Amino acid sequence: MERSALSGRRGQRQPSGEVLYGRNPVREALAAGRRAVGPVWATAPSAREPWLSGVEVVVEDAPALTARAGTDAHQGVCALAAPYPYVDAADLLAAPDALVVALDEVQDPQNVGAIGRSAECVGATGVVLPQRRTAEVTPAVAKASAGAVEHLPVARVRNLADWLGEAKEAGAWCYGAAVEADTAYDAPDYRGRVVLVLGAEGRGLRPRVAAACDALVALPLRGRIASLNVSAAAAVVLYEILQRRECVDSAS
Question: In terms of DSSP bridges, do strands 126-130 and 99-104 run parallel, antiparallel, or are they unpaired?
Fold first, then answer.
């Protein structure tokens, strides 16, 4: 149902909460149902999207949506949402074949979102973020992930190196991606519980985090650029893990 809104008028108080923006983030938040979503604001053309059928939509113009979202990248749709529902990091390791992506001080929301999208696409169990000096799951991250974070469990931990130690105690193998590593990315077995650890753009893994990994793996670089973007590297290694696991499953 569509209705006009006084909320778009000048001086109207913005409701409290997190404003998701973009078609995919809002659609996936509604589909996942992991957090309360509403109201939904949309321009008149976007309000007629089929996936908004049955959803109460407040029709506003594009400048009003830009003011709500704080960006003009809203694609004609915004929604008020409850805070992102982080999970307990220990729960991510419960499955015997858990695949978890851990990010070490990756601060760019675009990278965090893109990594989350790749992780969700390969069926990863979840993502672990440190509580400090790493991007949180914000609306910008949700937009960069195309809404994938709405379906992907994400946990935050106080100390990543300590958590990697706990992961190993739980039976996980921890592999850190590092340009200088001697082990090729396609050499490990990758069966069972696996944690893939990725470091910040340019800096890589911090020494203590790297030392907490069972092994460091590297992608081959044949060109003149020194390294891949961290989200691109994540996608390559995650799909190698997926392919390796599916080959084992088909052979058994």
Answer: parallel
pLDDT, tens digit (0-9, with 9 covering 90-100), for 54-79: 898 999 999 999 999 999 999 999 99
Determine if the pTM surpasses 0.70: yes
Q: Are residues 147 and 234 in the same domain?
A: yes
Q: Who wins on pLDDT, 228 or 12?
A: 228
Nearest C-alpha neighbor of 118 from the set 248, 245, 4, 232: 232
CA angle (233, 235, 237) in 5-degree steps: 70
The whole domain housing 68 covers: 2-81
Structure tokens at 6: 């006084």
Cβ atoms within 10 A of the Cβ of 148, count? 23
152 and 96 inside one domain? yes
Residues in the chain: 252
CATH number at residue 30: 3.30.1330
Which CATH number fits the domain that encloses residue 122?
A: 3.40.1280.10
Say if CB 181 and CB 214 are below 8 A apart.
Answer: no
Q: What is the mean pLDDT of residues 132-153?
A: 95
In sequence order, what are the residues at sequence separation of 6 or more whose Cβ sits closer than 8 angstroms to the Cβ of residue 90?
A: 166, 170
d(CA 201, CA 172): 25
- The DSSP code for 148 is G
Burial grade of 18 (CB within 10 A; 0-12, 13-18, 19 or more): middle
Distances in Å between the Cα of 192 and the Cα atoms of 108, 170, 197 are 30, 11, 16
Residue with tokens 């979202």: 69
187 with 76, same domain: the answer is no
Domain boundary among 81, 113, 135: 81
3-state class of 26 per DSSP? helix
